[in-house]
Amino acid sequence: MDNRLKIIILFATLCLLQRASTTAYRCTDHYKGYCVIENVTTESLPASTFPPEKSLLIQNSTIPAFGAECFRKIPVTENLMIHHLKIERLNLVECAQLTTLFASFNHISELNVQEGLSLRSLHLYQNMLTNVSALRVLTTLEQLYLHDNLLEVLEIDVFADMKSLKLLTLHRNMLTAIDTKQPVSLPSLESLFLQHNKLTYLDTGLWRMPTLQKVDLSGNQLGYLFTFLEEFPALKQLELHENRWNCAWLYKMMDRMEIRNIQHSQVDQSCEGTLFQEICCFSEGAAPDPMMLLISRTAIVDDLQDQLGCQRKKVEQLEEAHRKQSFRFDEMKQKIDQFEEFCKRVGL
Ligand SMILES: *[C@@H]1O[C@H](CO)[C@@H](O)[C@H](O)[C@H]1NC(C)=O
Ligand SMILES: *[C@@H]1O[C@H](CO)[C@@H](O)[C@H](O)[C@H]1NC(C)=O
Ligand SMILES: *[C@@H]1O[C@H](CO)[C@@H](O)[C@H](O)[C@H]1NC(C)=O
């Protein structure tokens, strides 16, 4: 056989071997204790192996759908960083060992989550999420980062089973409402970030957050709250600047804050209304009626609790009925009926 033919055959064999062989990704670098892997593609993934590292960072890769196929390749990885991979669909399945996931700076709009995972820290900021209902099953979460997404409405119930959740970030979304249909208890929550959304009202009457220390409500369009912070007995810091507070309500709130030694660290830099303790308010700002409602609500609830030693649940029903009765005028009649029925039931 002449040499040229030999070379051609050798070359062809090499090419075939190359195509059939698996890509064995290796750590090209280490970053903060993470093994760094590069150039992963959806095409190369099926026939590839990953190093069995506890902490893995995938970079310079494009993986539009990140799911079971990826997680099967990294069965021992507990900490995974998959920032900037143009991920659109994230499917958290077959990753029972995962405790920390950084998947920020992607294009994630679709999210699926298997039950029974043990994730403690989940970073999903800077994505395109409009619906985070799927996160409901992540009951072991301690830190959840959802800021800089496209959330418009949110049911706080989604987090109801996250009894270890300490930190929840929701700032810079487009939230106009945060609803709940039943009392939601988050016994470990310490920090809640809601700043720079589009909230015009926020009803926290059914939130039970006994350890909440820090809440940021700045940069919304709030005129008043349906609370004087009774549901946050541990609160130390409350940011209020850049809102549309009703002055009468704000004065009252500031009184409460002073009595309980709750601080605000930031102030309004400019104000078209009146500055009160460096927070801007508007004397003709949204509806003072709810303020009266609040005072009476607080009194009624306190009174009921004292007098009847009523079960908490029943008080909550009354609270809810009472709030809705006054706020949603169209539902007033119905709510008054409920209220009366309740009173009859508890023998008032
Ligand atoms: C990944 O691809 C880039 C650009 O093509 C290249 O410079 C780099 O060496 C590749 N890294 C690895 C580990 O193959
Ligand atoms: C790999 O990604 C990092 C961070 O995303 C970037 O700084 C770097 O330039 C990229 N390298 C290549 C070879 O593309
Ligand atoms: C959000 O997703 C859940 C399922 O994960 C679905 O049941 C629900 O209807 C979705 N909500 C909206 C507003 O699309």
Structure write-up:
The chain has 348 residues and is α/β, with parallel strands linked by helices. The protein has helices at residues 3-20, 68-73, 247-259, 289-308, 312-327, 332-346; strands at residues 23-24, 29-31, 34-38, 48-49, 55-59, 65-66, 79-81, 89-92, 100-102, 110-113, 121-123, 143-145, 153-155, 167-169, 177-179, 184-185, 191-193, 207-208, 214-216, 237-239, 245-246, 274-276, 279-282. The radius of gyration is 27 Å and the shape is elongated. The N and C termini lie far apart (107 Å). The relative contact order is 0.06. Residues 131, 133-134 line the site of one 2-acetamido-2-deoxy-beta-D-glucopyranose.
Distance between the termini: 107 Å
| Rough outline | elongated
Strand content: 15-25%
How many extended strands?
23
Helix content: 25-40%
Largest sheet: 11 strands, mixed
H/E element string? HEEEEEEHEEEEEEEEEEEEEEEHEEHHH
Provide the list of bound ligands, each named once.
Answer: 2-acetamido-2-deoxy-beta-D-glucopyranose
Q: By helix and strand content, what is the structural category?
A: alpha/beta
Rg calculated over all Cα atoms = 27 Å
Biggest sheet strand order reads 2-3-5-7-9-11-12-14-17-19-20
- Count, helices: 6
Low-confidence segments: none
Instruction: Round the mean pLDDT to the nearest integer and report it.
Output: 86
List keywords for this structure.
alpha/beta, eleven-stranded mixed beta sheet, binds 2-acetamido-2-deoxy-beta-D-glucopyranose
What is this entry, summarized?
The chain is an alpha/beta fold and 348 residues long. Helices cover 25% and strands 20% of the residues. The mean pLDDT is 86.
